[in-house]
Structure formats: structure tokens, C-alpha cells
């Protein structure tokens, strides 16, 4: 029989009480794996046979040496003159000798193998059909570092890492309440990735939690490498260009959203934690908004909104105005644009389209290039989108400015995933702007609006609290009200339990 | 699922009402008293709206179901068919209005069919979704209307020769022209067109305060359009207003903010948005009526046929723009709007008081 059949065969089999048989089975199940360690030893005067298995590199070796092997081999010698039978050896190991906190007994081969590959260490004793599985997980991991994709000036700096437990600990440290629940499940036939669902029990809506569990349980895939897999598998409208699930690598942000009644989905191996339900305006809010003074945050939010609109429509409005609506440009500007365009061989649409295209190439190259040659891109970029291109007579200076402005605007949107969406739609907007003018732009914007209005994320309308409108919640959309006035949670998200605080400034 | 809230419905009805009505000075036959005609029509619109809401509340069903409940199956279905054609026709008329606006102002070399097709593609896209999406979108664009109206209010003072004196003398031609302009003309367009919302009322989440919101809507619409009329008349004067194809457009064209002038494309935006919402609502009403007549479970497959019919009608209903306007003023109002918006609902209401209404399940 090949191994997958063997594993299937032994999955639900009980362990034998004969230690040699157990060893033999486990060796066949795990054979050819050079990183698996089998350590056999004897216990006490009667030299009861025992062994443990662990995966090199996944376990904390110091812990195994000091808390398992040392007590078992050295301390049990003190039991001289008090000879133990096999059963009581097992019992005393369980109760006295193994000096770690997290211990569990397993009876099935399948579970034992799974735990071994998780980085745990089972200890087998002759004559007992059970095994003591000791949690010894410990591997090399990236240490907690500053967030790189969501940097802030003021606020906590730490970011999630690739290890699930570290991530949950960062959340637990912020929300010290027994009602903060972290449930876990495994997804992926081969990867057996740990996925945790975190929520605050009396704050999050039960229906949302149930829906998340239902959608996650439906997934039957070979492996989950990043939380991006999960995002695509559980989002409401799989064909929409708009992201419907927010992700963040900032524990402070996730904790704040849990307090708003959202549910976090943490996937092992990914520093990006997903949060549902998500609404559109969340993508324009930065964690810093809530730490900085509220006047300033309000200003930033309005700036970002303007940036969003610019990033979506500026090139198309420029093309439409120059091509169809020259009369609405102030005359001196119109004349100067016309003068610049004198030597340019392309139509404005073509010009803007090409420039946008080159800009996207430069941006993509900037991300992929190794650090050492990164400078080359900025030099070449300044030539391509800049004075040189204008002097060469390829494009007009106005187009260069518009394209550059649009690029900067799209980088000022805090969420990268929605910035890409706007970048994508910008090309479509350019084409309608160049063929139908303002009328076409409005038509396209109406279609985008209709699409947004039709989206839902886990039962919450994507455009709430704008439509369906909730005046009470508009205080955290375009403006941010001060914390002492933020009495309520978003009610579409939090359901019944909306009260956040009692007013304290009377 | 019923998803529409009152505020959304209110916004949608307002956008719907302003959509094309804002383009024209309604009741210009009353000369400088057009704004008084507007006010009179608004006052008369309250009982009209009240009638629609009462009818809906009594039966808790949409228009064809009410008609069938009152007149029986055969007559009810026949009347519903007339209403379906009516909705399609009005959708085509509105489409034609926007076609003409676009080709006579900005897109002088674009064929009329291109504009029609572009509008109807968007309308059909809206109808792919639940009607609540249209209503929500209208709610989202209402701030654009408010903003542009505020800009317009500031902007008119930059127009040369603006004077409130152009509204005088009040009642210079006596009362009759004013009354004649208000009835049936302004009462049927835009107020009577609210009958279309009888197809949307069943989708509202709650029904208790419906009357209050609808009355408020009539008041706000009347006020908005009255202010608009006063602005246009005092800026352009009666003669130029009567002469212009699109007086509103003429007004915004004359505004200037410093070196920014000819801001009409921005207002074209407002008009086009309103137009799309309006056509979508009419097309939805037509589709829902057809669905009700034939007891269809699904209506999505009607989108393409209905879209095609509206497209064809929008081009075929008139040979030229003056003819289109003439038909609208002389024929549509008297022979189509009045019976369908006022007389039939009134008969239904009277019959419903005589007959005991049976709630449809």
C-alpha cells in the first residue's frame, strides 16, 4: 500500500498497547522524512520502553530536552525501590514528570500524526494504548516589526507576523475579556492551515459569525498559503472589481474593528488579517484617523476622498474637457493647452492613455526591482514622464501633469487594494471620457454607483451608512467626531448591542 | 426582499421629479406668472399624491394588482396593458428629451441614436439589479443636485441684467392664463408622473409614515421648481425663456465664476443623472406591469425587449424637436396624462370605497 492509503487506513485506528507495533506503524507513516526525529529511551528500574517523535525545526529543542527528556530519564531514577508497572509509569509521567503546561492525551494514529506535523511531541510508553502529546511548537519566525504597508505617524507601530499564535496574542493583549473568542479550524487538504475566527461575543452579530463559519467550512481546497485565498473564496460577489473584505496588518486596527462588532479571520502564514463585514468607506479610513486630533483627521479624510475622485476621473475629465468641452476651460488656459499640443502627433485620448500606461509600467517595475537598482527606475521614470518626453514632442506638458497628479492621488488612498481597483477603472473611464465626453463619464460613474449600491458584505450593504443612510453614523465617514461623542457602534454591523460608552463630558 | 427606506424613497422621488422638469420653465404660457402657476399646481398636487398613497395603502399592492382587484380580471388586465404602454411611452419621451438636449448643446455631430443607446445601456444595467439599487443610487446623487442648485443660486447674480422686476406685473394677464397653465399642464408633469411610484411602493420596508414623506416630497419639489422658475424668469425674461429650447441650460450658460464660464457640462451632468434615474423608474414600472399582466415569475428576460422598444420609440415618436415638444404640450397632456394619472385612479378610488377591498395575498 502506498502512503496516502496507509494514512487513510490508520487515520481512525486506535493506538496499540504494544509499543513496538506503534513505533513500526509510525515509522512507516513517516518514513523517508529526514526531518523527523525518533528518540527511544527507557524509564525507571524496570526499563519500560518509551519513545518520542518530533519534527526537527518545528519544535523548541530546549523545551524537549529540559522538560521532557531530562525529567523522564534522570528524575525517574529516583523512583528506586519503588518499582513501577507500565501503567503507573504512564500515569506518573502524565502527572509528575513532564514539566510543561500544555499536555493532551491522544488515542488515534491520525491525530498523533497531525500533532507531530504541527510541531508537537507525543510520548509513547509500552503497555498503554494512549500517548501523551506535549505542545512543543517553536520555530524560527520573523520577529514583530513595524508595519510597512500601513505606516502611521502616531499610534502603535507593531504589525502582525506570519505565526497565528503570535497574532492572536497581540489581539488578546488588547482585548482582555473572556467574551473575546478565538475559534479555530483547519483548512486545506495538504497544508492543514490553521485559521482562526476572532470576535467579541456580545458585540458581534451572531448571524455574521455563523455566516463566516459556514462559508469557511464550505472551502475544500488543497492548500491556503495566504489570507488572500480565503478572501476570494468567501466574498459575496466574486466578480466585482471592488474588494469586499478589508485586510490589515495592524493589530490596533483589527482590535478597534472587533470592538465595532466585526469578525476577524486570521490565517496562519499570513500577516494580513481579514475583517468582515466591510463597507466601502472603511477603505478611506486610516488607523491614525482615530489617534490624531479629530479636526486633522477630518481634513485628511476629505483630502483622501478628493484623492479618490481624482484617481478615478482626473485623466478622463481632462481628456473630455480638451476634446469636447473646450469652452468651459478658462480661455488663457485653453489657449496655452492648445499651444502645447501643437507639435504633438497623438489625440489627447491616445496621449493620456499612453502616459497612464507608462506610468503603470514604471510603478510595477518599482515594486519588482531589487533595491540596488531601484534608483534606475526613478531616473528613467523622470525622463519618461517628464520634461524630456515633452521636449521630444511626444506628449504635451498638461498631460504629463495630469498623469503625475493622478498617480500621486492614487497613492494617497490608505488601502492598496481599493487603489488598484480605481486604477483599473481609470482606464475604462479614460476611454468613455475620450469617446463620449462628460456625458460618457457620468454614464460610467452611474454604472459604478449602481454596482456599488448592489454589493453587500456579509449582510451589510456596501454603501452603508450613505445608502441606506443613517444620519447617526455619518459622523464617522467624511468627518470623525471626537471619541467622547462617539457613543454608538455602527448599527448595521453591530446589530443590537450598539452602545459603546456613556457620555462622560457633562 | 423589501429594502427601500423612506429617506431613500424621498430622495429618489425628488431626483425623479426634478430629472426632466428642471429643464423647462413649466407653464410659460402664463408668461411672468409661471411661478404662480407652479405654486397652484403644487397645492393641487397634494390631494393627487394623497390619492395614490391611499390607493396603495388600501390594497397594499402595485398598480396592475389594484386594477385587477377593482375591475376584475379582464378589464383590469386591459387597463394594465394601457399603463404598460404608457410607461414605455413616457420612458421614450424622457429619453428623447435628453437626446435632444445633448445633441443640441454639446454633441452636435453625434447621431441621436448613439445618445439613446448610451442612456439605455446604463438604464438596463440598473435594471439588472433589484430596484432598491436604483433608489439607493438616486439617494447617493441627491447631494450633487443640492450642490449644483446652491451654485446656481450664487451664480445667477453674475448674469447681466438679472432683475426681479422681470416678474412684474403679477397677474398682468389676469387669472385665467395662470390657472390654465397649472391645470392640467403642470399638475400632470411633473407631479402626475408620481403615479409610477405606485409600482415601487410595495418594495418599501415600512409603510406607516409613507403619507408624511410623500406630502413633504410634493412640497419640496414644488418649492424647488418654483425657485428654479423664478431664477430663470428673472435672469432671462419672459421672451427669451419662451424662445429657448432649454431655458435652464440657457441660464447656467450665462453664469460665470471669475474666469470659469460656460459651466453647462456640469449641469448637463445633473440633468443626465436625473434622466437616467427617471427612465429607469419608468422602464421598471413598465416591466413590472408586464410581469403582472402575464403572471411571470422572472422579469429579467424582459430587459432587452423593453430596452429595444424604448430605444425605437425614442427615435420614432417625433420627427423633430419642435414637434416632440408640441406633442408633449398639446396631445400627451390632455389625452394621455389626464386620463391615466387623474381620471382612472379617481375612478378606482371611488369604486374601492363602494366595493369592500379584498387584500391580495
Layout of strands and helices, then pairs:
The complex is a heterodimer of chains A (506) and B (361).
Chain A: H1 3-10, H2 19-29, E1 36-43, E2 48-55, H3 61-75, H4 86-97, E3 103-106, H5 109-118, E4 121-125, E5 131-134, H6 164-174, E6 180-187, E7 193-200, H7 206-218, H8 227-234, E8 246-248, H9 251-259, E9 263-267, E10 273-276, H10 294-323, H11 331-340, H12 348-368, H13 374-384, H14 387-391, H15 397-411, H16 416-454, E11 456-457, E12 460-461, H17 491-494
Antiparallel strand pairs in A: 1-2, 2-4, 3-5, 4-5, 6-7, 7-9, 8-10, 9-10, 11-12
Helix pairs in contact in A: 6-9, 10-15, 10-16, 12-13, 12-15, 12-16
Chain B: H1 6-21, H2 34-59, H3 63-71, H4 73-105, H5 112-128, H6 131-155, H7 176-188, H8 210-243, H9 247-254, E1 256-257, E2 260-261, H10 264-293, H11 303-316, H12 321-354
Antiparallel strand pairs in B: 1-2
Helix pairs in contact in B: 1-6, 1-8, 1-10, 2-7, 2-8, 2-12, 3-4, 4-5, 4-10, 4-11, 4-12, 5-10, 5-11, 6-10, 8-9
Keywords (chain A): Membrane, Transmembrane, Transmembrane helix
Transmembrane segments (chain A): 302-324, 400-420, 427-453
Pfam family, one (chain A): GerA
Written overview of the protein:
The complex is a heterodimer of chains A (506) and B (361). Chain A has 17 helices and twelve strands. Chain A has 506 residues and is an alpha+beta fold. Chain A is elongated and about 105 Å long. Chain A starts with a helix and ends in a 12-residue tail after the last helix. Chain B is mainly alpha-helical. Chain B is 72% helix and 1% strand. Chain B has a two-stranded antiparallel sheet with strand order 1-2. In chain B, helix 1 packs parallel to helix 8 (210-243), helix 2 crosses helix 12 and helix 4 runs antiparallel to helix 10 (264-293). Chain B is globular. Chain B starts with 5 loop residues before the first helix and ends in a 7-residue tail after the last helix. At the A-B interface, helix 16 of A face helix 5, helix 6, strand 2 and helix 10 of B.
Amino acid at each position: 500500500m502506498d502512503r496516502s492509503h496507509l494514512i487513510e487506513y490508520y487515520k481512525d485506528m486506535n493506538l496499540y498497547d504494544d509499543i513496538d507495533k506503534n513505533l513500526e506503524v509510525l515509522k512507516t507513516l513517516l518514513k523517508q522524512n529526514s526531518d523527523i526525529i525518533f528518540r527511544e529511551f527507557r524509564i525507571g528500574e524496570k526499563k519500560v520502553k518509551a519513545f518520542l517523535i518530533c519534527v526537527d525545526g518545528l519544535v523548541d529543542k530546549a523545551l524537549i530536552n529540559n522538560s521532557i527528556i531530562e525529567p523522564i530519564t534522570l528524575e525517574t531514577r529516583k523512583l528506586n525501590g519503588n518499582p513501577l508497572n507500565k501503567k503507573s509509569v504512564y500515569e506518573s509521567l502524565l502527572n509528575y514528570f513532564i514539566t510543561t503546561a500544555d499536555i493532551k492525551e491522544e488515542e488515534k494514529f491520525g491525530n498523533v500524526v497531525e500533532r507531530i506535523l504541527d510541531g508537537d511531541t507525543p510520548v509513547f510508553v509500552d503497555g498503554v494504548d494512549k500517548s501523551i502529546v506535549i505542545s512543543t511548537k517553536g520555530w524560527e519566525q520573523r520577529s514583530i516589526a513595524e508595519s510597512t504597508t500601513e505606516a502611521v505617524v502616531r499610534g502603535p507601530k507593531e504589525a502582525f507576523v506570519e505565526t497565528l499564535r503570535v497574532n492572536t496574542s497581540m489581539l488578546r493583549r488588547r482585548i482582555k475579556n473572556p467574551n473575546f473568542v478565538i475559534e479555530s479550524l483547519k483548512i486545506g487538504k495538504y497544508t492543514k492551515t490553521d485559521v482562526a475566527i476572532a470576535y467579541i461575543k456580545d458585540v458581534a452579530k451572531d448571524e455574521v459569525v455563523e455566516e463566516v463559519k459556514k462559508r469557511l467550512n464550505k472551502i475544500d481546497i488543497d492548500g491556503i498559503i495566504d489570507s488572500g485565498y480565503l478572501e476570494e473564496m468567501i466574498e459575496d460577489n466574486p466578480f466585482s472589481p471592488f474588494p469586499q473584505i478589508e485586510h490589515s496588518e495592524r493589530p490596533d486596527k483589527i482590535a478597534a474593528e472587533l470592538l465595532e462588532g466585526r469578525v476577524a479571520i486570521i490565517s496562519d502564514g499570513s500577516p494580513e488579517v481579514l475583517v468582515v463585514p466591510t463597507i466601502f468607506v472603511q477603505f478611506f479610513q486610516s488607523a491614525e484617523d482615530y489617534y490624531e486630533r479629530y479636526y486633522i483627521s477630518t481634513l485628511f479624510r476629505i483630502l483622501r476622498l478628493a484623492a479618490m475622485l481624482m484617481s478615478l476621473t482626473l485623466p478622463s475629465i481632462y481628456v473630455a474637457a480638451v476634446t469636447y468641452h473646450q469652452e468651459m476651460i478658462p480661455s488663457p488656459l485653453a489657449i496655452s493647452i492648445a499651444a502645447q499640443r501643437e507639435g504633438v502627433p497623438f489625440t489627447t485620448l491616445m496621449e493620456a492613455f499612453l502616459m497612464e500606461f507608462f506610468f503603470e509600467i514604471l510603478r510595477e517595475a518599482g515594486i519588482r526591482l531589487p533595491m540596488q537598482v531601484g534608483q534606475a527606475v526613478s531616473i528613467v521614470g523622470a525622463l519618461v514622464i517628464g520634461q524630456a518626453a515633452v521636449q521630444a514632442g511626444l506628449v504635451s506638458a498638461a498631460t504629463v501633469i495630469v498623469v503625475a497628479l493622478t498617480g500621486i492621488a492614487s497613492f494617497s488612498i490608505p488601502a492598496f487594494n481599493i487603489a488598484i481597483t480605481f486604477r483599473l477603472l481609470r482606464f475604462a473611464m479614460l476611454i468613455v471620457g475620450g469617446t463620449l465626453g462628460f456625458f460618457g463619464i457620468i454614464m460610467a460613474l452611474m454604472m459604478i454607483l449602481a454596482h456599488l449600491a448592489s454589493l453587500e458584505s456579509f449582510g451589510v450593504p456596501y454603501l452603508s451608512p450613505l445608502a441606506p443612510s443613517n444620519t447617526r453614523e455619518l459622523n464617522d465617514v467624511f468627518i470623525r467626531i471626537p471619541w467622547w461623542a462617539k457613543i454608538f457602534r455602527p448599527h448595521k454591523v453591530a446589530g443590537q448591542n450598539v452602545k459603546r460608552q456613556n457620555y462622560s463630558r457633562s | 426582499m423589501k429594502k427601500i427606506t423612506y429617506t431613500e424613497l424621498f430622495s429618489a422621488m425628488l431626483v425623479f421629479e426634478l430629472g426632466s422638469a428642471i429643464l423647462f420653465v413649466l407653464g410659460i404660457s402664463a408668461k411672468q406668472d409661471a411661478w404662480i402657476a407652479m405654486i397652484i399646481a403644487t397645492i393641487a398636487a397634494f390631494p393627487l399624491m394623497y390619492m395614490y398613497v391611499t390607493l396603495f395603502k388600501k390594497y397594499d399592492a402595485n398598480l396592475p394588482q389594484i386594477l385587477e382587484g377593482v375591475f376584475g380580471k379582464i378589464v383590469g388586465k386591459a387597463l394594465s396593458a394601457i399603463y404598460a404602454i404608457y410607461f414605455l411611452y413616457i420612458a421614450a419621451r424622457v429619453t428623447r428629451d435628453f437626446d435632444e438636449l445633448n445633441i443640441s448643446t454639446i454633441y452636435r455631430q453625434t447621431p441621436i441614436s448613439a445618445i439613446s443607446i448610451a442612456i439605455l445601456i446604463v438604464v438596463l444595467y440598473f435594471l439588472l439589479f433589484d430596484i432598491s439599487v436604483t433608489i439607493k443610487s438616486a439617494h447617493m446623487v441627491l447631494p450633487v443636485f443640492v450642490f449644483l442648485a446652491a451654485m446656481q443660486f450664487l451664480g445667477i447674480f453674475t448674469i447681466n441684467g438679472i432683475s426681479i422686476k422681470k416678474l412684474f406685473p403679477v397677474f398682468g394677464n389676469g387669472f385665467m392664463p395662470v390657472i390654465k397653465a397649472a391645470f392640467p399642464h403642470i399638475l400632470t408633469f411633473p407631479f402626475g408622473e408620481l403615479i409610477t411610484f405606485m409600482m415601487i411602493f410595495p418594495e418599501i420596508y415600512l409603510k406607516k409614515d409613507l403619507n408624511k414623506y410623500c406630502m413633504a416630497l410634493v412640497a419640496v419639489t414644488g418649492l424647488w421648481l418654483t425657485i428654479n422658475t423664478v431664477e430663470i424668469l428673472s435672469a432671462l425674461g419672459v421672451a427669451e425663456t419662451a424662445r429657448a429650447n432649454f431655458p435652464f441650460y440657457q441660464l447656467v450658460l450665462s453664469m460665470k465664476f471669475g474666469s470659469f464660464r460656460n459651466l453647462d457640462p456640469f449641469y448637463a451632468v445633473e440633468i443626465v443623472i436625473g434622466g437616467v434615474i427617471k427612465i429607469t423608474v419608468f422602464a421598471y414600472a413598465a416591466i413590472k406591469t408586464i410581469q403582472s399582466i402575464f403572471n411571470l415569475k422572472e422579469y429579467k428576460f424582459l430587459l432587452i425587449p423593453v430596452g429595444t422598444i424604448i430605444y425605437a420609440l425614442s427615435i420614432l415618436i417625433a420627427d423633430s424637436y419642435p414637434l416632440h415638444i408640441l406633442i408633449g404640450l398639446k396631445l400627451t397632456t390632455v389625452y394621455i396624462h389626464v386620463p391615466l394619472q387623474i381620471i382612472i385612479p379617481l375612478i378606482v378610488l371611488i369604486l374601492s370605497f363602494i366595493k369592500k377591498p379584498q387584500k391580495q395575498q
